[in-house]
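Researcher: Final request for today, and then I'll write up notes for the group meeting. The sequence and the SMILES for pyridoxal-5'-phosphate follow.
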Amino acid sequence: MDLSRFPRRRYTQGVTPLEFLPNFTQALRNSCGPSGGPNVWIKRDDMLGLTPGGNKTRKLEFLVADALAQGADTLITCGAPQSNHCRATLSASIKEGMKCRFVIEERVPNSYRLDASGNNFLFRLLGVEAITVVPAGTNMLQAMQQVSDDLAGAGRKGYIVPGGGSNAIGGLGYVACAQELQQQFFEQGVQIDKIVVGSGSSGTHGGLLAGFLGNHINIPLIGIGVSRDPVDQDPLVHQEAQAVADLLGLKLTIPREAVLSFGDWWRPKYSMPNAAMVEAVQLLARTEAILLDPVYTGKIMAGLIGLARQGYFKRDENVLFIHTGGAPSLHAYEPEVLGLTGLPA
Ligand SMILES: *Cc1c(COP(=O)(O)O)cnc(C)c1O
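Model: Predicted protein-pyridoxal-5'-phosphate complex:
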């Protein structure tokens, strides 16, 4: 597939590593009982560019290029108080000499604190121009449009980046990742049997799916929901994958059965810690010295661990975990991640 006809900025030099995790694989296998566990590999998208990287960096390469093509001087986006996406968008705006404004959705009333740690601290350090805090359930697109209108009134031009950077243009970032993976599998001589990927605003899962189908890569993608059960998540992923395929002009109908996700690891709520997340974060840190995060990748890896213990993966199957980043928010959850507080299973 030819991605070169889409404008793209680059925020990472080269490709992110594809690595085997020997110590983690052994520890997981020891906890899986007689059925044994899979070989676990990792795609280090936590090592992408932008203070620090994560999956939003790949989407922003195409979204910011589009903003520049439209003559925008300010990026406007939205997210939760510890949004990795907001931090990465701000970071991209700095590289481009643009300004950046956020609309932050306070999902728990009065939970937003200007002096909070983690990504919130980085918003201030990196110099966000303005933050509008709105209550849960606010129409975020409308709130961002209001910011854009205010800027227009001052003779400026805003560009609205959707939540999570997940639209057809943003999804191209994960089509690029699919192509990068295809080349790495070939060059490293690795045969991956299944891929575990986080599924939130769905640009990552949906973009990868469109990229895999478009490139005839037949490795099943297993989404782990971070905020929704499959009944709500799968249609979003399907819609995103179809929008990406259409933008690419693939003349491809995404089969509904190509979308698969599990919703068992995100509870009690989006961004609220649980015990399985803590186990996953600690296990990867203590076997491979790789940091996961409490909101996304800790729960996603908990899904991989849980599925392995249920015997979902065959012994010695090669399972690839896509590390989508997020480590800055670890610092906003230190006591929970160290196991110093009681948590729901
Ligand atoms: C945003 C995010 C995800 C979810 O990706 P989507 O493309 O929104 O589905 C996963 N992991 C991390 C660290 C994220 O910041």
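Model: The longest strand covers residues 99-106. The chain has two domains: 18-54+167-337, 56-165.
Researcher: Thanks, that's everything.
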